[in-house]
Design brief:
By secondary structure, the chain is mostly beta strands. The strands form two sheets. Strands 2, 4, 5, 6, 9, 10 and 11 form a seven-stranded mixed beta sheet that branches. Strands 1-3-8-7 form a four-stranded antiparallel beta sheet, with no helix packed on it.
Length: 110
Amino acid sequence: VQLQASGGGLVQAGGSLNLSCATSGIFFDRPAMAWHRQAPGKQRELVATIASDDRTNYADFVKGRFTISRDTAKNTLYLQMNSLKPDDTAVYYCRYFREWGHGTQVTVSS
């Protein structure tokens, strides 16, 4: 299994980014997957999950601002992030069971 996250960058507060996680080696069309993030000096935390039936769940601190989705034809997981805040600054990782992508840096300036 390989997971390749991309789409991070520098954005001003209130802006948007759309993260992608390209997957390979997963044999299920709709695998349960997740996005996590880790800010400097903090523990890695769960941001959003998508189940095999496409039900989604979000951490309270991103509800109403972030949307997790997938494109099964492209084997890609997404995280649309709107109304970004400086507190959202972190490295964002996609995960499939115990497999982790390398992460993509998101920096939100005030």
